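Readers of this paper often ask what the protein records in our data store actually look like. This encoding replaces a full spatial description with a residue-level series of whole-number codes. For reference, a complete record is included directly beneath this paragraph.
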Amino acid sequence: MKPEETIDFPIRKVWSRISRIYNSEASKYGGTMAIGQILLSIDPEGTPSTKLGPKMGMESRSLVRTLQTMEEAGLIKRIACKEDKRVVRMHLTAKGKQMRDVSRNTVIKFNEAVQSRFTPTQLNNFRTVMTELDRILEQEQLF
């Protein structure tokens, strides 16, 4: 089987290109795609650190170093919940909110540029296939 005939190869190939585009744009502002994604995932009232990973579709333990870097850069601050000190919420600082706006605008521009090249039916079919693929990978043991 040729790589082009598999399901995973085109996904990996396209995601690598998207990643490079986002990282290239983020580097202009001293950030990364991962930082932008985290900024976009933090709610205005704060988000518990344990909820960020699942909210973004990644393992929580993968975020620790990036969150520390973001805190050191003054993008986020950690605030313990007054009712339950075990819960720590991530909050955006003023600098983090500015960077979040840059990230949001970048995502919007990217999506508008890509979506303008496809019909609504094509986009709907794409979303249907990706949603079903995600369901299969989440619920079924393939091997």
In short: Residues 36-139 form a domain with the Arc Repressor Mutant, subunit A fold (CATH 1.10.10.10). The radius of gyration is 18 Å.
